[in-house]
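Dear support,

We are seeing what looks like truncated structure output for some complexes. This example has two components. We would appreciate it if you could run it in full and send us the complete token output so we can diff it against ours.
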Amino acid sequence: MPTWLTLAKGPAFLFVLAVFALGLLRLIVLTVWDILAAVHRAGNRRMPYRQILRQTLSWLLPVNHLHRARPAYSFASFGLHVSILLVGLFLRNHLDILQANIGFAWWSISKPILDVLTLIGIAGAAFLLLSRIYVMSSQRLSRTSDYLLLLLLLNILVSGYLAGRDWNPIPYDELMLFHVLNGMALLLVAPFSKIAHCVLFPFIRLGAEVAWHLTPRGGSEVIQTLHGPQGRKI
Amino acid sequence: MNNTLRTWIKDGLWAVAFAGLVAAVIRFASGLGAATGLTDATPWGVWIAFKLCFVALAGGGFTLAAVVYIFHIESLRPLLRRAILIATLGYSSFVVSLIFDLGLPWHMYRIVNWQDRSVMFEIAWCVILYLTVLILEFSPTVLEHPWLQHPILQKIAHWLHQLTLPLVITGIVLSTLHQSSLGSLFLIMRHRVNPLWYSPWLPSLFFTSAISAGMMALVVEGFIMERWFKRGMRFELLTLLGKWVPLPLGLYLILRLSDLFLRGVLPGALDGSWQSILFLAEIFIGGVLPLILLGIKKVRESRKGLLTSAVLILAGIVSQRMSLSMFTMYQAEGTHYFPSLSETAIALAIPAAAILVYLFFAENLALLGAEIPAPTDISTLDDPAAFAKQDTPGRAIFARRSGLAIFVVALALPLMFHPPANCNSQPTDPATLTKALEILPPSLLSSPASCNDRAATPVTPAKGWDVLTINGNNANYTVRFTHQDHQVFLTKELGSEEAACQTCHHLNKPGDQATACSACHTDYYQPQSIFDHTIHETTLGGNTSCTKCHSSVEHLPLTSVICQNCHTGMVPQAGQTAFNMFAPSYLDAMHGSCLACHIQEAQKQNKPELALCTTCHPNGQSQPNQTTANLPKP
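Here is the complete output from our reference environment:
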């Protein structure tokens, strides 16, 4: 069996998968915990929960919120996200590996469609990387990890695309090993980097919406509520 | 000991406990066979050995209770709470460990059936009752906590206080009974116990050594807690324990050695085997030496001297329990026991969790001194900056422990979990493939049974824990076994459940580890798929190669081209239209490699009996005769 297949079906992959799944689960728990703690501390009884929920749900499909001022950026980012999600979760080969590791998988999308999506993803990732490098406002906001994560994504997309091509110039096994190693690295860093937004985004959104509705200086006022104006304990 | 070190030690204990949690899930999901190194021939392993140690170390509970309440040696009363907590945790560990060790722990309710000839029955009842007594004895300490000052709880605490003396007496009787009957367990397995550890007086040996171990466990715990909490040791009381422990320990040593001497086994201790060296070390370093050390007043009353003696005594008694039940136990011929990773993880996780519970109680209860540690002062909350930094209670702890848990669980999972066998997971060597095709009898070419066919047959998932994962040859290559389906089917076929059970569970022969699946499933060795898809895929260029063999979109064996399209050198035999992908069964392969030569030699040597079936299979045995199988190959 080639190394890449041993890695993908073996214990190392199970380790990565467990870190990925459990790490993200832990982040969700911590985020919700923090939101609840913030609400509790602020003591705002008139929090408009319905509005908050509606806003949070509307952000689940960000098509409505595409950035009008930077359409190219928006489309590149949107394309990259759709591409990664669909290709990552619905490619037959990926699902086979999942089946081999955890014993179940789901239906797949046919390959020609995913090939097109991969190309969109590559274009999107390349555009985002270039704009981070050359657009001054993006550059100022970027940390090293932002570049590295985009590069990692680009590695995965390009190597995955090449592996399926007849004209692929690189030896198949070596290319797949590269693809699998990069994929495992992505899963492994996901709970410890901004990649965590793949499951955290509704919760981050919820936190942001809640934060908008906290009363000003809610933190210190709650102490006054608890302890009275003179610091006397009630 | 500084805070960082404390946190590191706690993290370590949590990590061990988390690993044990993973192992626990695996043990219950896949069964004892797959999760442990235990077999039918070696059913007792590291769990039993640890269990004996837990109970021995818990001996301080009844010893101190007797000393304080019965003999009225009031000066030792400050140690009582700790002794009872250690005993409670020791016995809880025993019970938790037992839940893992019993094949079907949910059948535990069956101990209501009276069994007046079973030592196990007595132990089970004593342990359950004594653990209840210990919990009742310890509850008043818990109910002192400021959070538990509800009037009803205080009423309960008051009743428990009233009940102390009857509880203590019950506790002493129960633990005396079963500390000794743990020793009795080994009386009925004399043939497996090493003579140097065997003694008809094992019950008395267990009892006396449990008293010594319990007292010394208190001494060691005192030293550790002093390092940890900087209080609570009461050195003068521990010295008192050191002064009195030679009594039970000396009795234990005298009983043990005199029995061995009287029965004439003692010379075996000098035969130079590793068992004899272990025995001598156990007796002299773990028994006689600390006895002498404690006899010297100056040593006994020095911190180092007392601690050294206590550790030596504990080591000696732990060694006695573990050697008796594990290290020196005779194994049946051809069997071998080594604890599996998940088994070890569970064995270690239980004491780790017990230590964490101990620390939790020591931090929150008036266990070591009289005072209860003060809760965090909330007056600092008035400062808004300090408030903003303040985490919700437990948040930081949860973040730290869950972060640790993720890595431990993720590491433990692939190490301990062996997924069930997959049909395509074993690649076939191409050389074997070609060879197999050569010797394949034509009759088998139409055989439908193959790995692929079996994979296509859906297996109905059984409810609950009825599917066991059997690690058949202990080769970390497991199969799923639907126990309930087998049970139901066999009961229907044979008419009674008893007969159904016996079909599989009473077939073991000496040296057998378990009844093989092939005993009933005679198709176990039917032809196997020898076509290696992976090798073909890789050589033909990975994902792009599918269409090189498969004509349609459906990538099935049916839509693939025949082998000769590429392997032009492969020519079918006369009357054969195509190759198939099956290797012969084990049986056919064996016959294939023996029969031809047998027939040839029968003619050549004019010995027709060489070609008869009964020559290799006398009395209609399905397996060839061992003596002929050992003959040199022609």
